[in-house]
């Protein structure tokens, strides 16, 4: 895949689906793939997606032709997709020993008797 051919498409109407993207962007060249990102839990559109065009020149034509176009009252945002950034950390925050009561780091005090 050529990164100069992959587009980020934002501010999508929530009713727009993959085949809608493919159809609209097909006016500017060959669409290799078109994907509206969906929320796994709700099944609703996240309001953005990605379109991979057949060549960098087709991608530029699509940016010029589609950026700012109104769909259901929403102006599309279209630009070259950036590579996904690695998320730091892994499992999301919180240190060891947090929330386990007392100021002793979770260890029970030894009885003196």
Automatic annotation (TrEMBL):
PROSITE patterns for this protein: RRM
Organism annotation: Pseudaquabacterium inlustre
Lineage, highest ranks first: Bacteria, Pseudomonadati, Pseudomonadota, Betaproteobacteria, Burkholderiales
CDD domains: RRM2_NsCP33_like
Record-given protein name: RNA-binding protein
Domain spans labelled RRM: 5-83
Biased composition (Gly residues): 89-106
Transport as UniProt keyword: no
Pfam family, one: RRM_1
Keywords: RNA-binding
């Amino acid at each position: 895949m050529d990164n100069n051919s992959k587009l980020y498409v934002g501010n999508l109407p929530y009713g727009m689906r993959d085949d809608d993207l493919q159809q609209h962007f097909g006016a500017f060249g060959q669409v290799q793939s078109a994907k509206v990102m969906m929320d796994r839990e709700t099944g609703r559109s996240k309001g953005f997606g990605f379109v991979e065009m057949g060549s960098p020149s087709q991608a530029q034509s699509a940016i010029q032709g589609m950026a700012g176009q109104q769909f259901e009252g929403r102006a599309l945002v279209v630009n070259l997709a950036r590579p996904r950034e690695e998320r730091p950390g892994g499992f999301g925050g919180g240190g060891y020993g947090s929330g386990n009561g007392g100021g002793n780091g979770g260890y029970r005090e030894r009885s003196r008797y």
